[in-house]
């Protein structure tokens, strides 16, 4: 790619984005990873040279971004839409499976869930009843979804509480979903 294709501001912005992609790596180490010398990396970062299309592709892969972003600073709309659709399908699949991704639950909430799993069913149901009563007494109780309180009421009335998958199975399930999504995404 020729420097003449870009004005000074664009070259400075491309150089800054290349520095961002490099992060904390030294120029030599970064150059080794993308297949160029330390001097060439320095020239890219100071705007003396613009990477070839092949190097731009390597930079994009290394930085988990696109050539379009490196050269313009803009997220390509089509790529953004594809990732949004992928994320939306992932959320729908997660909801269908009745599983909450681990990252959405705090360490404190996970500790409570873990302890609940090992209690006797009657003890769990007693705790659920206390939680529901406290919730009903709370002045700001509109914050929680009504469907959640109904579910808790159903568990208490049916006296049946079902635990989810164990943690290893959850991670394996997510890996399967993500791998399947990646295949679907590529098609």
Structural notes for this entry:
The chain has 187 residues and is an all-alpha fold. The protein folds into three domains: 3-75, 434 Repressor (Amino-terminal Domain) (Orthogonal Bundle); 78-99 and 166-186; 102-158. Helices cover 70% and strands 0% of the residues. It is built from ten helices and no strands. Helix 2 (27-34) packs across helix 3, helix 6 (77-97) packs antiparallel against helix 10 (167-186) and helix 8 (121-137) runs antiparallel to helix 9. The protein is elongated, with a radius of gyration of 26 Å. The protein starts with 7 loop residues before the first helix and ends with a helix.
Keywords:
single chain, 187 residues, mainly alpha, 434 Repressor (Amino-terminal Domain), 3 domains, 10 helices, 70% helix, elongated, disordered C terminus
CATH class value of the largest domain = Mainly Alpha
Calculate Rg over CA atoms: 26 Å
Instruction: Name the helicity range.
Output: 55-70%
**Low-pLDDT windows of residues:** 181-187
H/E series = HHHHHHHHHH
CATH topological fold name of the largest domain = 434 Repressor (Amino-terminal Domain)
Distance between the termini: 30 Å
CATH architecture identity of the largest domain: Orthogonal Bundle
Overall tally of domains: 3
The strand count comes to: 0
CATH superfamily of the largest domain, called what? Answer: lambda repressor-like DNA-binding domains
Tally of individual helices: 10
Average pLDDT, rounded to a whole number, is 76
Beta-strand content: under 5%
Label the overall shape.
Answer: elongated
């Amino acid at each position: 790619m020729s420097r003449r294709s870009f004005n000074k501001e664009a070259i400075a912005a491309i150089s800054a984005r290349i520095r961002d992609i490099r992060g904390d790596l030294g120029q030599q180490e970064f150059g080794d990873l993308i297949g160029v010398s330390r001097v060439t990396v320095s020239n890219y970062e100071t705007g003396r040279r613009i990477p070839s299309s092949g190097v731009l592709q390597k930079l994009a892969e290394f930085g988990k971004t696109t050539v379009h972003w490196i050269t313009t600073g803009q997220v390509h709309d089509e790529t953004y839409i594809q990732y949004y659709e992928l994320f939306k399908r992932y959320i729908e699949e997660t909801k269908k499976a009745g599983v909450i991704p681990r990252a959405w639950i705090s360490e404190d909430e996970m500790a409570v869930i873990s302890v609940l799993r090992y209690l006797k069913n009657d003890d769990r149901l007693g705790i659920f009843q206390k939680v529901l009563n406290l919730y009903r007494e709370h002045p700001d109780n509109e914050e929680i979804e009504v469907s959640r309180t109904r579910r808790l009421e159903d568990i208490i009335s049916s006296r049946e509480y079902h635990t989810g998958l164990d943690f290893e199975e959850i991670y394996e399930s997510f890996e399967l979903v993500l791998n399947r999504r990646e295949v679907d995404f590529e098609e």
